[in-house]
Amino acid sequence: MVDLATESNKKEVMIKQIRQKFKEEKYRIARHCQRRCDSRGISLNEIKEVIAKGKVIKTYPKDSPYPSYLILGYVRNGKPLYILCALGELVHIITVHWLDPAKWLDPKTRREKIP
Q: 3-class DSSP state for residue 25?
């Protein structure tokens, strides 16, 4: 059984570490992410806003080479924006995307994948 309080605490610790690294400008935007930003009209300021105010909604502790985290935040008067990042010596911004109703029931609940 997963202890939800412990999981929530871990997410809070991780978002604080990510925010601190951003403040210290210890982050890197992957080429893939930059292409996604360009094609989806997402700015660096919006990424920074999500990091500053968003919440970790999913963790991927077994990702390699670093654990990664899906952060949800709201920009442009409440539009959900997702940031996938990995935390190592730097914060690696892997990709960004808007809410896709085909993949998400609501901003925090992903639809089941159909085999």
A: coil
**Global pTM value:** 0.89
The answer to whether 43 touches 19, Cβ cutoff 8 Å, is: no
What domains does the chain contain, in order, with CATH numbers? Answer: 4-110 (3.30.2310)
What pLDDT is stored for residue 5 in this prediction?
Answer: 62
Q: Which residues contact 54 (CB under 8 A, 6 or more apart)?
A: 15, 71, 72, 73, 74, 83
Structure tokens at 103: 């993949």
pLDDT, tens digit, 9 for 90 and up, residues 47-63: 999 999 999 999 999 99
The neighbouring-strand residues paired with 110 are 104
In this structure, what is the dihedral angle of CA atoms 55, 61, 42, 18, given to the nearest 10 degrees?
Answer: 60
